[in-house]
Every structure is written in structure tokens, then in C-alpha cells.
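---------- Forwarded message ----------

FYI, see the Myosin motor domain-containing protein record below. Original note from H. follows.
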Amino acid sequence: MSQKSQALPSFELIKSLPVDFRFTGSLTSDRLEKSDDVNAENSDAVCSSIPENDSLGNGMVDGVLDIIGNDVNEDSPYSGNIITVGGRPSSGNGDLDTVTSVLPSPSPSISRSHTEHRWGDTASYTGKKKLQSWFQLPNGDWEIGKIISTSGTESVISLPDGKVLKVKSESLVPANPDILDGVDDLMQLSYLNEPSVLYNLQYRYNQDMIYTKAGPVLVAINPFKEVPLYGNDYIQAYKNKSIESPHVYAITDTAIREMIRDEVNQSIIISGESGAGKTETAKIAMQYLAALGGGSGIEYEILKTNPILEAFGNAKTLRNDNSSRFGKLIEIHFSETGKISGAKIQTFLLEKSRVVQCMEGERSYHIFYQLCAGAPRTLKEKINLKSVSEYKYLGQSNCYSINGVDDAERFHVVTEALDIVHVSKEDQESVFAMLAAVLWLGNISFTVVDNENHVEPLTDEGLTTVANLIGCDVGELKLALSTRKMKAGNDNIIQKLTLSQAIDTRDALAKSIYACLFEWLVEQINKSLAVGKRRTGRSISILDIYGFESFERNSFEQFCINYANERLQQHFNRHLFKLEQEEYIQDGIDWAKVDFEDNQDCLNLFEKKPLGLLSLLDEESTFPNGTDLTFANKLKQHLHWNSCFRGDRGKAFKVCHYAGEVIYDTTGFLEKNRDLLHLDSIQLLSSCSCHLPQIFASTMLTQSAKPVVGPLYKAGGADSQKLSVATKFKGQLFQLMQRLENTSPHFIRCIKANNSQSPRSYEQGLVLQQLRCCGVLEVVRISRSGFPTRMSHQKFAKRYGFLLLESVASQDPLSVSVAILHQFNILPEMYQVGYTKLFFRTGQIGVLEDTRNRTLHSILRVQSCFRGHQARRYLSELRRGIATLQSFVRGEKIRMEYAVLLQRHRAAVVMQRQIKSTLSMKRYKEIHAASIIIQSVVRGLLVRRCSGNIGLLTAGGTKGNESDEVLVKASFLAELQRRILKAEAAFREKEEENDILHQRLQQYESRWSEYELKMKSMEEVWQKQMRSLQSSLSIAKKSLAIDDSERNSDASVNASDERDFSWDTGSNYRGQETNGHSARPMSAGLSVISRLAEEFEQRTQVFGDDAKFLVEVKSGQVEASLNPDRELRRLKQMFESWKKDYGARLRETKVILNKLGNEEGALDRVKKKWWGRRNSSRIN
């Protein structure tokens, strides 16, 4: 292929390098040695697994000829070694003769194929220039060495540890200069090859720079430790574009900006192996979205869904302590202002088998261990929760904890998250009860009851606890676990289960309860995060799905997981390879096609009909005699033509995936694909008193509404699911792909640095395998040689046309676009003009976008200054006018207020004068009248006392008597005042006594009214209870009458005691008696009901009369020598005791009637159960 290679970057690229870079040595010296201390073994091995460099290969011939004939050609792979780096001269003399002298003459290796000599175009050059090259050691690792000499097809290299090896020249791979160590984008590497990519990633990984760009793809290496790259400071920095280094924040920020700018939904697809850090990467992306789109509060709920989903859907595996055992797609919706308005979560293929079976060293789902460790004592007592080691489901793996993880603390986090997403406390208790029921199901054991190995569950703590937790009868649970009802024509056959069948039934019930519980939780979360009317159509979807898995034993779960990864890989190829190159060809631009690995053959192996893996699996699942071995043989018989399929011994087969070859064991494939839960178990859940099992049963009945077309399953029963697990998963996967196709994707490839989950450990072989699986090198090649940015002529002219200096309003969009490119001096090799679009190389559109932003910013500044000036002028004029207007308005207002105030003042003066005059006159009259009265009294008293001595008075003693008279008047006046004061004090005392008596009277009246109200309320309560009992009796009569009319002649009951209203139905009753035998118990039942009705009427009349009489005595209407309060309490006690006895007899009657209808149809039993519950609730 003849492709353009980029020259070495200038010193301007140093800005993107780490801050601790430094030059060690002269710029004019040869390439510097690297200090990796790896022991090199003697080897002459030739590397045969290195993919081809995009700037190398057969194109070297053209490059050499161009250099010889036309000075220096930049398309040559050697041109990068001749162009100076920031002014640095080449190691030759710098003229053309020197350059051509060092070029190798055409050798036979040039004419060979790429497959034989992948790096043959540069090996001879690097050998003659004595540059550093990569050499592959026998263990597969790469070591850098300095070429000492080259002779023919062999070279002598010196390794960093001082060893000197003689190797074949074609096994050497050129290394990049030291200045490119640790670049943040692999596209900047001069030599793009596997060892260079591995070294660059390791260099950054050792400095905790775990993110590296590979063109449009972000490569994230799991550090297995906390790194200081997150938090609000980093979020603000990436939001403000003050940091340009690769990061999940940068990818998420790009998605948000493109969503707002282009009004196109975005998706962030996170992929990688198990343990590569996909879940944490998704959480980091959600944190950035919540920080930028927050404000409404919904973002906090979205973040709190992570601990819930992790607790119920993640588990510890051998490779990962927090492995997602399900796939999830989180679709976050945004409003018109760019704020989060809601979200929706979709899940895929929960690994249900982990509930009942775990490998050694693994754990089941986290929530089981968190519940046992962190549940409060009251909850543990309520659901009878024990320690983890006491449950068989959890104890089979001998792994109960994870280093550094506190399950009790995580449980509190989960409960807080459930509160935040609006799951009520009652529902939370129901969820925990279902979890405990799943654990106790594993403790149910069976015992053999006959010679045919039929079993039944032991009635132990496990069985009774499960029955109590799900709210069913112990006997019904035993029947559901040990028997199975099957239809044969119109007859129902009850088949007893063997030990293996019973265990499978128990495990199927446990798996179904947990799977339905997980789906119910996701549904509740979606209700809490619902968008509703705020939906705008803009969304960003984050896909966190299980990575490619290959274990020692791979079962049905790995089969589905790897199939999903094949689909995602094709989506990745389609967007980055297929669609890219197809668009180049359709638009007619000059383009050299890049080869890449296509996995369409593997997808055809899975999806082809009728001879595909999924089709054959569904076909074999419908056969009654189908087994895992017959399924494996059928695959080997029909799929041998596919290059991706290989048969293996026994039940195994191999599939060549894009990530490598995987051996699958078909043991359990058919059973897991059927995922059968018999109708007996579903009916058991539907009959439970708890609401969650009823919801689960309704969901499963909806899914199994139509049986699979074909023979009955070997497990029995025609109530199997309509679709198999594989078919449903395929449908979900196709829907996911369609949704992703309608979005603009952003890819994050997570890489696991080592299998031991140890920080600072970097395994080259493991990383290289993942890079090959992810197609990272192909992505970089196509990005370097391609045009990742494209824009239509119309959009380009509309967006950047205003930047032109001349008016181009009359020109067509293509002419405008070309004029823009010429004005800004964009080099012709940096873009190409297609039929409908302009295609740019990486970074070119950024120059125009920066210029546009600066121009718009300048325009906005000018507009803001002019508008500010206009606003200030208008504001000053407005202020002057307002001040003038306010002065007139305020003056007029003050004058009006003063006139009103003056009028009010005058009126007040007149009113005060009149009032003061009236008060003074009144006071004067009162004083005058009092004075006259006092004077009249005093004078009369004096006159009466002194009238006897009037005749004895003489003229000579007139003056002396006048003084005595004055003394007498003063003494009488003091005595009169004392009497007045005494009378006033007595009057006040009488008034106080009168007030006290009045208050007591009011208290007595209020007490009497309250007592009357209590009497009335008690009378109403009695009447209601009487009416309730009367209605219950009437309903019982009607129900018994209906039963009597519709009852068949197969009921046989013998009455034994008519007084106690009980019958004995016999132990061997089978419903074979005639109509004559069933008439007598029915007539006895009618007579009992009649007696109960008569007793009810009599008691009603007696209690009603007694209560009415006591009310009349209490109110005083009837006189009687008794205490109404005491008699009323005694009457109430009598009523309660009679009601309790009457209710017991009613219940006994109900039991007898149930015995009478023991052989009735399903409709009669439902009616009796309803009648019994209705009467019981009314009596209670």
C-alpha cells in the first residue's frame, strides 16, 4: 500500500508531553539508549506476529525512487529520518548526495510480501544508521537494543544490560526517538508498531498517566489503585479546556458539546475484558455528566443507582473483585438548556446461575453478603437471617469476603441509595425478605420416600422460613418442590420428582425469584428517573457491558457474552473502518484503503439460519430427547464448513473469536437456554400473600403466555417460555445495536495491565493481546492516514463563510468553502474536497474553529461595547426624565397628602374638644351629684343629733360651739367612709363567688355534653357492628344456598354433633357418593346457618334494648336505682365475649363447609376462600 507517513513532530509537540521530560545528550548524536532492565536471552528468532506498520511496507520502493529523483519525498518512510526535529540536522552531512548515499539499494526483500517481511523496509536503514531497534525475546517480551553493526541479513545489537546478540536483521523493529517517549496520542509516534505502542503505554502507566489517545479511541489502563486524576478541580479544568490531556472527562465533554452543537444523540461505548475497569470508567463518565448537567437534583439520583446495580448485579470472580455479571445501557436525557432531565436503564443477560452455583474462590452477588453483614438486628429477626457460612448457596465457594471491602458499610450505602431513588421502606423490607428466601431455598434438603428414588422436602427450618418469607403454605411449597402436574388429554397427572429433578426445581425457583427481583428493582429505578414531559430527544447513552471472557471451562453464559462482544466489535469496525472507508470511496477522494480484521464470518456462525449456533441451539432445545451431547454432535455435523468453528472431543467445540479461540463445554446449554420454571412454581408464587412474589408470577405468566411450537420438553409441561434465552438475548442485542446506530459513538477501550490485580505491574503479553483484540493499531493507522473530520459544503460555508474578506453571497457553497481554505492557507495535503463533503485531517478543523470563535468573540465584544454605550445613553436620558416626572408627581402627592392631613387635624381638634367637653361635663355632674348626696346625709345626721340642744344655745357661747360642731362632722364623715369601703369589699367578694359558681356551672354543662356524645358514638359503633354481623350472615346464607344449588353429587359428610355445629368427613373420602348422601350434610349446614341467624337477631335485639335503656337512664329520661356507667361497661364486656364466641362458631362453620366442598372445582374453592376472608375481616 502506498500511504503517506507523517514526519517527526517539531518541538511544538513537546507541550503535550509530560512535564518531567528532559533531553539526555546531544541533539546531533544517534538515538539514545533506553534504560529498561530486561534480561535478554540468546535468540535468533524472527518476529512473525507483529502487524504491519502503516507507513512501511511495499510502498518503500516508490518512496526510494521519489527520493532519488526528486530531492526529499515526504511520502517515504525514510523522510522522517531526514527532516530535522526542531532544527536538528540529520546524522549525515545534510545535502542530497549524503542522503542518497545512505539509502539501501533495492534488495530482494523489497519484492517480498508483507506477510513475510513486516518491517523489512526499515530494518536495513536502521541497521546502517546504527539506530535503536526493538528485539523480541523468547518469552514474547520486547527489549530495546542499539545496533552495533549490520552484515548482510544479520545484525549485532547491544542490549541495555550489556549483552551483545547477533540476530537476523528482519527480526528488528525500529524504535522511536526519546523525545516521543510517553506521548499522549499514539498518532504522534513516528514508527507505529506493537513494541513502540507497548512501551509508550507502559511509560505513561508507570507515571500514573493511565489514559492515552489512539486516534478517536481512548485507551484506559486499569491502575488497580487510586490515582489523583479525578474530582471537582479536574472537572472544572476539562470543562474550561485548561487541560488537554486524554481523560474520560475529555471524551464525555466532547459528547456533550457535540450533542448540543449537532443536535445528535451521543453514545459512549466502554468495552474491555473482565477486570479492565469498565464499571469504574462508566461511573467516572456519569460523574462528569452529573457535574456539567446538574442542577435539577435528578443527577444525584442517577449517581446513586450505581451502588444498587453493583450490589445486585456484580460479584467477585477469579479475575475481578467487582465483576459486572450483567450488561447495562444508561440513557441520560437532557433538556434544551443542557441540563439532565432524566434517565433510563436497560439491562442485559443477568447471570442467574451464579445465585445457586459459584466456583471455588468466587462469590455470589454482593447483596447477599452485604445483607448478612449489615442488616440491623430487628430485620435479621424478622426475616430469620443467619451468617453467611450457614447458607449452602454461599458456602460452596469457600469465599465470604473481599480484601479491603466492608460489606456492612456497603449495605448502608445501598439502603441510602434505595431511599434516594424512592423505594419505600416497606418495599425494601420485601426485597430483603426475597433475598433471604433465595438463601433459605438453598438450605432445603430432600429425603427419598420410595424405591423409585422419589423425594419430598424435609419440613425443617429452611422450608418453613421460605414459606413464611414468600407468604405461602408449607404444604403447597412441599408439593411444588416434589411433584409436578402434567396434562394428558383432559386428565391431570401428578408426577413425583426424583432427587435431581427436585434440586433443579428448587434452584430454578431461586434463580427466577432473584432475576425477577433484579428486573423489578431496575423498573423502580426507571420510574424514579423517568423523564416525562421534560423529554427533548437529546441523550447520551453509556454502555457498560461485560467484556470478552475465556476461562478453563466456558459455559452458556460465556457463549452469550462473547457473542455480544462480537456484535460490539463489528459496530466498532463499522464506524471506524467500514463506514469510514466506504464514505471516502463514495465521495470520490484520493484514499488508500487500510486492511483490518473483520469478524463477519464469526457473526455468521452465530446468527445464520437455519444452520447457525443460535438456530441449532433453539432447535435442539425443542426436542424432548435432546441432550447436550446430541447438540454438540449436531454442531460438528452442520458447522464444519465455517472457518471459525472447530469440533472438539465429547461435548466441547471451539469458536475462533476476534479476541482468540475459545473452547465451550455444552454441558447445561440446553437447560440454561430453556430456563424452565414449571407452572406449578409460578402458581405457587401467584398464591403468596406477599405482593412481590405475585408481581413476579404475573411477569412470568406474561412471558409464558404462548408455549414454544414443537414437542413438549423432556422436563415436562407445555408451559415453557415462548422464546429461549438465546433468542431473547439476540433480540435485545439487535435492539441495542439499532439504538447505537442512531447515535454518534465515542469509544473507550479498557485494558487490564495484569491478571494479579497488582498496581505497577505491566504484563506485555496480556496488554498486547488486548490491544490486538481492540484493534487499536488499526484505529491509529486509519486515523493517521485518513480524514477523521468531515463536513458538508453547505454546512462548512454556512459556519465559516462570514470569515471571508470578500462578499460571497452569490457564490455556491463549494466555491465559498474553497475560498475559505485558501484564505487561511490550509495545506492541500491536510484536506480533500469530495462530491458532497470536505474531509480534513486531524486537527485542521480546530484551526478554523478557533478562528471562528475568536472572530465571534471579537464581534460580541464590539456589539457589547456599542450596546453598552447605547444603553448608558438611554439610561441617563431616562433617569433625567424620570427625575423630572418624579419631582412633579411627588410634589403633587405631598400637597394632596398635606391637604388631607390638615383637614384631618382640624376634624381631630373639633372631635377632641367635643369629647373632652362631654367627659368633663359628665365627670362634673357625677361629682356634683355625689357631693349633694354626701352633704344631705351628713347634714341630716348632724341635724338629727344636734336638734335636742338647739334650745339651750346662748348667744355668749356661739363661737365655742361652732368648733365642736366641726369636730362632730369630721368623725361622722370618717365613720361613713369606713362603712362604704366595707360594703364595697363585701360586694367584690360576692362578685368573685358568683364568677366561680358560673365557671363550675359551665364545666358541668361541658362534661354532660361530652358524655352525651360518647353515648351516641358507642351506640353508633354497636349498631355498625350489628349491621356487619347481619350482613356476614346474609352473605353466608346466600353463598351456602348457591353452593347447595350447584353442588355435585360427589360430596359425602356425616353430621355428628348438631349442638356444636361440627361434622366428621371421614379419612378416606374421595367424592364418590351419590346425591342422596350429600343432601343430609347440606340440610344440616342450612339448619346451622338458620340457628346462627336466629341467635344473631335475638342478641341484636337484646343488646340494642339494653343500650337504649342505659342511655335513657343516663340522660335522666327514666329513673332507675343503678349506676349507668358501670352497667354500660358490663354490657360492653358481655357483647365482646359473645362476639368472640360467635366469630369462633362462624369460623368452625366455614371449616365444615370447606370440607363439604373438598372435591369441588377451582371456581368453588376460590369462592369459599373469598367468603372466609370476607367474614373473618368483618368479624375482626
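H. also flagged this: The longest helix spans residues 844-946.
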